[in-house]
Specification:
It is a single chain. The chain is built from 19 helices and 31 strands. It is of the alpha+beta class. Among the domains are: about 10-30 and about 885-920; about 55-350, no CATH class; about 470-605 and about 615-695, no CATH class. The strands form ten sheets. Strands 14, 15, 16, 17, 18, 26, 27 and 31 form an eight-stranded mixed β-sheet that branches. Strands 6, 7, 10, 12 and 13 form a five-stranded antiparallel β-sheet that branches. Strands 1-2-3-11 form a four-stranded antiparallel β-sheet, with helices on one face. The two termini are about 15 Å apart.
Amino acid sequence: MSAPARATLPSRLRWAGALASAAALGALIAIGPPGAARAAGGPGYDQITGVGLTDSAVTVPWTKGLLDTNNQPIASANADRGSATPASPYSFMYSDFKNLSVTVSQTRDITHQGITVSWKGGQPTAAGPSVAAGLFLQLMECYGDSSSGPSPQNCEYGIGAIPSFPFAPVFLAQRTGYLCAPGAVPSVTNPPGTAIGSGPLLGCDPQEPLAGANSPDVAPCPGDACDPGFFSIPFVPVGAPGSPVYARDQQPLRQYFSELNTNEVPLAVTSPAGTGQLQFETLTGTQSPGLGCGEKESNGQPRGCWLVIVPRGQYEPNGFKITTSSGGADCCIQSSPLSASNWAMRIQVHLSYAPVQAFCPPGSQERETVGTQVVSRAMQSWQLALNAAAKCSRVYGYSAVTETTSTQQLSTAGTGVGLAFTTIPIGSEAARDGGHPPSGLPPILYAPVAVSAVGFGFNINDGSGYVTTPVKLTPELLAKAVTQVYRNDLPDYYTPAPSDPGPAWSQSNPANMTLDRQFAALNPGPGFTVGVSLAPLLTEDHSALNQQIWQWIQADPAASGWLDNGTKDAANSVTADPDYEKLKLGRAPAIDSFPRAYAACLDLGQSPGPSPKEEKRCSLDLLPYTDNYDTAASSALAAFNSTTLQWDTTATAPDGSSGWWGKIGVEAIGKIFDWGVSDTPALAAFGLIDAQLCNDGGTACVAPSTASVTTALNSATKDSAGLLEVNPAKPGNGGYPLVQVTYAAVPTNQSAAALNDYASLIAYAAGPGQTPGVVAGDLPPGYLPLSASLRAQAQAVVARLRAIANPTPSPTHSHSPTPPPTSGSPPVSPGSTTPPSTTPQPSGSPPGASPSQPNPTPGASASAPGLAISPPSAQLAGTTTPRQGVGGIRWVLLAVVLAGAVSATLGAVLRYGRVPPWLQRMRP
């Protein structure tokens, strides 16, 4: 909300300074500031994995756990917790939490991501008969504008998965609970019973309802949610204070969140050492409209939200102490964390969100870009900064598309797309499947903008807590995981009646990867005996990224031999799937996709009911593909298993009719094993544990990291178009094998305005956009900053694009023109210093393809039939960005920025009494 206006002079001073500073800042962005900026995180932070604490991390002891919107302890609210003589009638709970301390890895510029929540000083979780009995944490995300924190009504909680046990009703994962008998007070010696006459072990809360019969925590009667004897904390969606949602049976909540998309954590285990850790998925207003986190408020700033952690001990709010040794109904904490007394024990941490959109009005002029999904998070960051700097006068758009679509967009006139991000030469993808590169491609310049890697991220919780030990994978193990050799990955292996044992070749194979002897030897620990598929989440696209994974597998003799020839793997425990053996996946050239090749289906006949349907399940029904790398990582973090189990008459089929195979959904705590293919930016964002890729013997294991990605990048060689490629079989000693360089591909046959705009984007991406960090405009975690040579190549392309867009007028005197390149000479890529002595074929081109030919078009380096890839000339590529006379200008502009900032700051201090947020970080 906007602050009230005060004096006219401070206001004018503030705005004059802001405008002057912004104008100079825009010029500095165009030039590119020298030197380094802030660090992305604190000591031990790794830019590739995102592991470690960012500079906005907070550590808060429970005794000071109620923080304000600046994440400073609220002295008055915390006073009783730290008192030697606490006055609260609920202080009997304090002893379980007094030594607890929680660390949150990031609290500013939050997006849809994972943040690491770790804790120490807790009491070890007490075990119950089938669920943790007590001494654990419950976590949720809430909105709330008050500096004192959120209300339970503002929180996404109440629909989580907790294994049930056959005693009294469980309210741990609900928004309801028992009211105490009238006039009850908490007592550890004589705890009161419920208002409906039940005993104290059911955990009533004497503090509910907070305001008598008219309390908002009591569902109205008569009404669908009316339930005498129970309180009911409504969920009030953001922006709808007059529309509380009461949930007697949880169904009304599903319009805002459900078992399939909630981020609530109803039970987080504390180890015997008193420690614990998990990744908490933060949701923006896009994923959770009921919270609205990151959405634009009336003051133009993104809405902040709260992480709330409710520790649970050995006492219920009425004073009843659980008895874990009995194994009976009194074993376990049962009450809701939202009840008033439990809520009073909370830790609250404020989360400042990055904007969920560019904050530009509809109709803003947009300069479109498309390309590989591995640049998505970087481009989202750069977009926000560039669009804000331009004040929406120019907006950069971006859409993640396949390689084929990128080629089509750049080669088809009138698409409005003039830049595609790619890891391979435009058009070369056609040759992977034996096709021919498209003809008639325009001349294209390639500028390196990002370095990242592909990996495999895991989320494992076996009941002892979140597993942080990296999973080790060999090429052979990965080959088995993606070729449906485990019984639970076969659609016709069906254990419910009528059961089906599956094909004969599979019947001695393990049920899942964790029960594979080869996996167990590399990853000691109990295997998962759950009767569901543990297959990785895979994308359906055809890409050079997928091909690189298969090239790594093929480089291992044991893996390639098992794929093509063997019926048993090296450990003599797993038979290959004959349907995949026919594909000869161990032979070069490597394929570029992950096929679902197993052909058999399960057919249970006609379903019962008025609309019978054939109950048939095939590979794609059991193992559907995921949309993209981001979805794969977020689904793994959320423990969402998209594989199917039994036929569900209420589920919706792909054609919209009723009746389909029900999905597992969010897995129960203690039974979580989710993993999938993704890129390092998404893996870092969601905090998944990266797999270590090992050789066939299970040694020389390497995970993506700043060091291993740098080593691999140093091993890269240039393809025929000059683009760097890492050979996964030879990534260098200690190098990570699945590293890619992303290039901005820009055709030169565009308008001057388009070329200038794309040049500005590249200049920012390869300049200020290489500063690691989490603020809009920074290089997000998961990307390796460009080397000096790659930056120089990018800036050389910037100079060339601007030269084409703004040609220097020809002098009036006559001169001899520079002759064009010799006919038949190949295009030369960025970074080359001299043309090659022989004429190479474009990457992936079939034998006999025509080489690129010179193009006499002014400003274009070459044009030819076939692949027609045309990077800058050898003379241009061999240089860095030409020196410009901007040294003095840069310092003048910097002085203007500083002066404007001082003026704006002074105005803001006079006006608000504080430093404005826009000075702390750039915002759209």
